[in-house]
Amino acid sequence: MKPNPALSDALCWGQQALTQSDSAALDCRVLLCYVLQKPDSYLYTWPDKALNEQQWQAFQQLISRRQRGVPVAHLTGEREFWSLPLNVNDSTLIPRPDTEVLVEQALQLAQAESCILDLGTGTGAIALALASELPSACIVGLDKQADAVALAKLNQQKCGFHHVEFLQSDWFSALGERRFDVIVSNPPYIDEQDPHLQQGDVRFEPLSALVAPEQGLADIRHISEQARAFFNGSGYLLFEHGYQQGQAVQDLLVALGYQDCRTVKDYAGNDRVTIAKWI
Question: What is the pLDDT of residue 197?
């Protein structure tokens, strides 16, 4: 390819280079927009505009790193979730679209002034998405990892929400006497032997945020047991989990005394979020 290609030519080159990605076209657009610091519409408006040498070199380097499997979100340092532009890094999970199902279900159950707890908050995506829709709610996000808490606080400042609090805590350990109406969590739920851990973006994410013993159910069990003491009398518990875990999570919750258990499917039609009520 000639030096300094047009935007359309650069996109074609990038797509051909990313033969191992199932989202090559999208990856290229996101990375080229990041290099240009322009919105996606710019690529369609100015397809014949040539990259300068610095931009072309930067784009080639990003495509090379993407070829090695580095997630696009790590390359750009940002991922949109619930229309919020969130900073991301390799200390936490990258927010995924299916997690928005958890947010949707929590919003259906929460009241305007509910107290809501987000366990294992990571980037703060779930807590901040809820905050964007519930400006009068009291929302707390907890994470065991100090780096994750720092990142969540940075995203809080970026979004400008002042009714969210992020704390470092080993699950419930830092809460004291605080009580909640809704508790949500996207905890580690992947089985330690799952072969998917060696594939895709998860290779670059912390295992501590992905895997759990007991075929991925250990942290869900622990949270379910402990959460009963942290409800404001009664309340709702919501988990994101694996596509094959819906019934197992329901059975676990029923055995612990929760009621009205049900599982909601994600956008691909897979079991993704299980909800239960503590009375």
Answer: 58
Binding site, annotated residues for S-adenosyl-L-methionine: 120-124, 143, 171, 186
- Name residue, tokens 């999970």: 93
* Spatial CA neighbour of 122 closest among 85, 83, 148: 148
Binding residues: 120-124, 143, 171, 186-189
Instruction: Please tell me what DSSP assigns to residue 50.
Output: B
- pLDDT beneath 50, residues of the chain: 1
pTM attached to this predicted model: 0.85
Q: Which residues does the annotation place in the binding site for substrate?
A: 186-189
Residue-wise pLDDT for 120-149, tens only, equals: 999 999 999 999 999 999 999 999 999 999
- Cβ–Cβ under 8 Å, residues 39 and 21: no
CATH code of the domain covering residue 58? 1.10.8
Q: Which domain holds residue 19?
A: 7-68
